[in-house]
Design goal:
Pathogenesis-related Protein p14a, five-stranded mixed β-sheet, 2 domains, Immunoglobulin-like, Cysteine-rich secretory protein family protein, single chain, six-stranded mixed β-sheet
Amino acid sequence: MKIIPLTVLLFISLTLFQKKALSQNVTSRQTGIDQKLATYHISREEFAYYQILNNKEHRLSAYRDDDLMLLSKIILLHRINDSREKYHVPPVKLDILASRVANQMSRESCDKGFFGHWNLEGEKPFHRYAFAGGTDHVSENASALITTGRISPEFDDIVGLMENAHSGFMKEEAPNDGHKQTVIGPFHNFVGIGTAWCEHGFRYYEEFIDRYLQFRPFQQTIKKGETATIQFRPLDKKLYPYVIIGYYEPPLKPMTRDEINRLNSYNDFSEDIAFQLWPWQIPSANRDGYITLRKRFNKKGLYYIQIYLSKEPYENGRRASNRGKIQASGIVIKVQ
């Protein structure tokens, strides 16, 4: 279980805006991507690699980054990995789908005058990522700037705001350093980065991803009384399924801006545990290494399924704990 901590607000003006959003098109006084690559010390090979991934990803195409915004994300990726290196944890890669999920949240938050970890549909980060097609575990950092001035759309200025937001996370001190701890989580291996700006505001979101499982296609929406079938296997054969926990929550309800703005941290779980499978209860893998989980759901709502992995095979009889294990999935099954 995890509680994602207090969000960051950088206030210049204390009044949320309700004005028409500006265009999201970033501009630049300098010409050409190559010049920007040189300025920010980003290799052409790395940029081309993420261009290919960006072009191959067709989900949430309305929130696709153009080349300049993709470059801004790669620049922030380097800043994030600089932060992680200082705390001796492995680097992360940029995830395109998670970045689009973060872009959507940033855009809606900015345009509609709210800020937090929930959207107006009442969805938390793991809902949004799962509904977009993600299956991994996600942890979110969020930052907002609200100002009486105007946000400059210049590329360097936007990158500067993104860097300032990330730096704000890393300046936190214990015990109030939840965002910092999210950045340097040792099991993260990907990150999505989203941003948006409006007439009097700026949003920045980081979606840290724990990707350790491969899933076969499954039906995400089922009817009450039907059985969900989920098949998965670790990407690394040296990791072992340890516990599977399914959390239930009732159907989501829309939220108002004021309700969202009053909330700070969010729980990465619910109080209603629908089922638990410990090491001695998890089915054996088939010849291809896939474990099949079948669960019948008799109550309408959402089931958030977390699969934990261990670096060591289980050998302790009937005693187990998920403490220190890798939280490797964020599947959400919708029962109608």
